[in-house]
Amino acid sequence: IVINADKVKVTGNKAEKKVYYRHTGYPGGLRVTPYSRMSERHPDRIIRKAVRGMLPHTKLGRMQLKKLRIYAGGEHRHQAQNPQPLEL
After folding, report:
1. Quick one: pLDDT at residue 58?
2. DSSP sequence for the chain
3. Distance of alpha carbon 23 from alpha carbon 33, whole angstroms
4. % of residues, the chain, pLDDT over 70
């Protein structure tokens, strides 16, 4: 479980220069989203894309990514599992 995804900070000038790419599947359908817009609208997707790049791009990696839960704020619905904080 990852909480407070909206508080992610990047170093250097990545906030201005980093972009995320996705393709719609149509010819000429490459979409570019800058980091600043992605952090405003979907801060959880920043973490998900970063973790996805670190996992294997196989069936096992997809299954592992499904188990990852990311929340933009500090509240989540997993209190019953008693998650332990991890200090970095």
Report:
1. 97
2. -B--GGG----TTHHHH-EEEEE-SSTT-EEEEEHHHHHHH-HHHHHHHHHHHHS-SSHHHHHHHHT--B-SSS--S-GGG-PPP---
3. 11
4. 100
Domains parsed from the chain with CATH numbers: 5-76 (3.90.1180.10)
Q: Which residues pair with 34 in a beta bridge?
A: 19
Q: Which two tokens stand for residue 26?
A: 């149509």
**Residue corresponding to tokens 């490459």:** 30
Tokens 């929340």 sit on residue: 71
Work out the pLDDT band at 31, boundaries 50, 70, 90.
Answer: very high
